[in-house]
Amino acid sequence: MRDPKERLRDILEAIARIERYASRGREAFERDELIQVWIFHHIQIIGEAAANLGRDFHEAHPEVPWPQIVAMRNVLVHEYFGVDLREVWKTVERDLPALKLAVGRL
Fold first, then answer.
1. I need a surface site. Which of 29, 55, 70, 88 has the fewest CB within 10 A?
2. For residue 57, what are the domain limits?
């Protein structure tokens, strides 16, 4: 099992990769399938890394919304064709900056 610091680093790296393309704006995200796939993939990485931190780590750091992070990953993986782009974009704009700060403090 990887060290929690490595998982946290995975989360921060995935956020940085999302930011690289999210900086092009919502319209670019909505019209460019490659940007969508890039962002979906890295949100999945965030969710997988979060899930693999384990329950004890989650309980020790309740300030981070771990269940919601893992749930978003599950939506992208299991309901791929029904994904609402607006909801994903809201996650990118609203939730990832807060997650970046919270994980950076751990």
1. 55
2. 4-105
Largest CA distance in the chain: 40
Give the model confidence (pLDDT) of 52-86 as tens digits.
999 999 999 999 999 999 999 988 888 867 889 99
- pTM value is 0.93
Each residue's pLDDT tens digit, 21-54:
999 999 999 999 999 999 999 999 999 999 999 9
What is the residue type of 6? E
Mark whether 78 is an active-site residue. yes
> Into how many domains does the chain fold?
1
Which of 31, 55, 78, 105 is the catalytic position? 78
